Amino acid sequence: MKVSKSIVLVGTSLLCTVLLAACGGSGSSSNNSEILLWSSTTGPDGEKIKKTIDQYNETDPDFKVKLVSMQGDTFTSKLTTAGKSGKGIPDLALIASEALPTYKHQDMLETWDDMIDGTELARENYVEAAWDTGVVDDSQYGIPATMGSWVMYYNQDLVDKYVPGALDDGVVTYEEIRQAGEKAKADGIYSFGYTWGMQNYSNLYQQMGGEWQDAQGNINIDNEYSYNAVQEFKDLYDAGYMVPDGEDANKLFANQKLIFLPEGTWMLSNMEEISDFTWGQTFTPQWDAEHIIQGSGVDQFAMFKTNEERSDEKKSGMVDFLTWLQANQLEWVKSGANPTSLAMLDNEEYVEMPQSFLLKTEKGQAAISVNAVDGLSYIFGEYDNRSWDMITGKADIQTTFGEIQKVVEEKMK
Q1: What is the pLDDT of residues 112-122, one digit of tens each?
Q2: Least confident segment among 2-11, 105-114, 130-139, 167-176
Q3: How far apart are CA 215 and CA 270, in angstroms?
Q4: How far apart are CA 42 and CA 87, in angstroms?
Q5: How large is the angle between the packed helices 224-238 and 174-184, nearest 10 degrees?
Q6: How confident is the model over 306-321, as a mean pLDDT?
Q7: What is the CA radius of gyration of the chain?
Q8: Is the pLDDT of residue 377 over 90?
Q9: How far apart are CA 53 and CA 69, in angstroms?
Q10: Which residues, in sequence order, are bridge partners of residue 65?
């Protein structure tokens, strides 16, 4: 694989603040001859989506798709305002998996059930976990688009030096990370990078057996699974195996000072700049190699309720677009995302991409776990604000989770 000595970190850059006019004047819905799609994906990733849609429009469909991308806050604000009023609604909105139940419970969404009955938009044609994320109260409210996952990048040379054989099964455990850290520490090399806290926490929490809701369906994270997950990170930090707070784990990885870097599939373009060593991508670190859980987020095509009735012809055009997309997501997934449609497994270029291991193996598909519980965004936001204080010992772990639990309960009211 091609790689460079230093990675210039390019987060999701913003093209611009989208003005209301960009979405059709005061937010008017699309006209009868096109399908209006709203997305919060901007920058290089947004351009890849646009390329895909341009390819679809070149097939000369009855209804061309018009993509309007905007910043995340603008997207949420405009979509919520339009959803409550039923005016200025896009035909399709690309929303995060965890947002779907929230919009549905606020009575903003139309079901896809009747529209997709008897079509190729069916569960058997998708990754099951991705499809099932769109089901709320036994109806289909989302059609899966692409999937972003919290995986792990590794330096093959350093793995061979400090923990040979750890990757033979394609799974790296926290125990193996500790073994590598003990050997590499004397050489000034870290074994574990802790970048986005909530991603690391949510994966390990579930791997240890944690559930997001109690038996009554209420959010519950003030429990032993949360305490134990953060204690594991604290132990790695205290032992000197984890990249300290304030240091750039991505930079250390590029400079061959870090063995294992849990990061998102969306970091693929950055990794592809590396050329000084062999790197690879595999499952996020696992607590138990025999019980793999791989956290992922699945963007869903949702259809919001509107006061302006959509014609049967337009609805048919929306189904045609999503059906075409099943086998034509190559440009889209070059950002590092995985498709959710199994038809993409017939695309030779896709199956050669590093992230494809999640779809092209039964073990990978079975491991996928999608966070789609209402209220998780509150948990993750609070956790990210407090995780380093717990890891560094500035705050008591159990006390902090008690505080997070109370804040989340208040916000959910």
Answers
A1: 999 999 999 99
A2: 2-11
A3: 42
A4: 24
A5: 20
A6: 95
A7: 22
A8: no
A9: 12
A10: 35
Helix (H) / strand (E) element for 187: namely none
- The DSSP line for 281-316 is EEPPPBS-TTS--EEEEEEEEE-B--SSPPPHHHHH
Query: How far lies 355's CA from each of 39, 144, 270, 280, 372, in Å?
Result: 23, 17, 14, 10, 21
Residue type, 346: D
Element (H, E) at 233: helix 224-238
E-strand spans in 26-105?
A: 34-39, 64-69, 92-95
Which tokens go with 61? 């469909």
Cβ neighbors of 370 (< 8 A, separation 6 or more) are 97, 129, 130, 132, 133, 147, 295, 296, 297, 298
CA distance 352 to 76: 35
Q: Could you tell me where the DSSP H helices lie in 326-391?
A: 330-333, 348-351, 357-360, 362-367, 376-391
Cβ pair 229, 204 in contact under 8 A: yes
Is the entire prediction scored with pTM above 0.85?
yes
Q: Report the amino acid identity of residue 357.
A: F
pLDDT tens, position by position, 49-96: 999 999 999 999 999 999 999 998 999 999 999 999 999 999 999 999
Contact 36, 300 (CB under 8 A): no
Q: What is the mean pLDDT of the chain?
A: 91
Report residue 369: phi and psi, to 5°.
-125, 125
Beta-ladder partners of 281: 153
